[in-house]
Amino acid sequence: SSDRQGLGDWGVTTTKLPNDIEKLTQEASKRGIKFGLWIEPEMVNPRSELYKQHKDWVIRFSNREEYYFRNQMVLDLSNPKVQDFVFGIVDNLMKKYPGIAYFKWDCNSPITNIYSPYLKDKQSHLYIEHVRGLYNILERVKQKYPDVPMMLCSGGGGRSDYKALSYFTEFWPSDNTDAVERIFIQWGYGHFFPSKTLSAHVTSWGKQSVKFRTDVAMMGKLGFDIRVNEMNPQEQEYCRNAVKNFKQLEYVIGEGDVYRLMSPYKSNHAAVMYVGEDKKTSVLFAFDIHPRYGERIRSLRLEGLDPDKLYKIKEINLLPNTKSTLAGNGQTYSGEYLMKVGLTVFSSAQTVSKVIEISQNDIDTNPSIK
Predict the structure, then answer these.
(1) How far is the C-alpha of 166 from the C-alpha of 116, rounded, in Å?
(2) Is 23 buried (19+), middle (13-18) or exposed (0-12) by CB count in 10 A?
(3) Any idea where the Glycosyl hydrolase family 36 C-terminal domain is (predicted)?
(4) CATH number of the structural domain spanning residue 326
């Protein structure tokens, strides 16, 4: 198997995995890790047994030269037999390897060679029937495996729609994972989709610090696509602490109300705030992207708090052996003060990030209350 052959033939390549997938799931379990699998079940390579045996299952003209995108073609999901086959890919994997705990469902080619051997004289129905076929497959998967989370990916964010999300737990917004670009991407998606649906991964793209990249990714469903052995011990410790913080605050980031306090499109900075339903816990993400020299830094007014309650400010996601430079860190303020006066969270530094936990603190003897 390679990028040029084998797609569609769903068997283990023993030269690469001599001990089968089961061995991988077992080794992951020993280390306390849930094993996930990246699949692309709707596609086929021309150099595959599936293509040789079932050309009538592929969207293609039989009398024209084929055009390939990424060396692959699209299976005809309007055909019930193909629907059964694609469902069977997931079903057979789960039956054979019950240790699989997660799927990334990819789709890397648009429909080319647009002709359905199954629909024959009803070619105008192809796009609609193809999508209906996909939803039939996904419905069967969800009904049989309701507790298996799945990420929907399609050449980036090609399938970020609410109907598809009824079958998936999250989607991949873009193959562009540069942290600065992701601030803009996530800002835009956030107008339509809750943050818990946005897969946001820390990768090796960009020259920003691991902290900056992680803080950006923490605004969505945090994940890591990075070589851990290439990070230094300080970065590894930072990431472990950040994951711990994310797990503690995920309910706020994923389920809370979102306040867009500073747009990256209108400023050299960006700020997004997530407020829990009960307003007791909030998380503020603040980013210095590319400040201008000598730029006047203004306070940022918060939103969504109870003006009559007291809130303690705490910067989290700090690098090991470093102290917060946030003015007001550890102090307590009224919700009214934070929303009318605000906090100085920005700086004149390039690509610097702050993550601030804001916790309701009704009983506090701290003399710094404002």
Answers:
(1) 27
(2) exposed
(3) 269-357
(4) 2.60.40.1180
Rg of the chain taking only CA atoms, in angstroms? 24
| 348, amino acid identity | S
3-state SS assignment for residue 37: strand
Nearest Cα residue to 69 out of 104, 114, 37? 114
Which of the residues are catalytic?
A: 106, 175
Contacts of 56 (CB under 8 A, 6+ apart): 117, 118
pTM reported for the whole predicted model = 0.93
Q: What is the CATH number of the domain that holds 223?
A: 3.20.20.70
Q: Please indicate, yes or no, if residue 281 is contained in any of the structural domains.
A: yes
End-to-end CA distance of the chain: 65
CA 206 to chain centre: 17
Q: Is 71 left (phi over 0), alpha (psi -120 to 50) or beta?
A: left
- pLDDT tens figures, 51-63: 999 999 999 998 8
Chain length of the chain: 370
Tokens of 21: 């997938």
Q: Is the pLDDT of residue 363 over 70?
A: no
Among candidate residues 218, 343, 350, 217, the one with its CA nearest the CA of residue 288: 350
pLDDT tens readout for residues 123-151: 999 999 999 999 999 999 999 999 999 99
Amino acid at residue number 33: I
The parent domain of residue 240 ranges over 20-256
CA distance linking residue 170 with residue 55, whole number of Å:
33
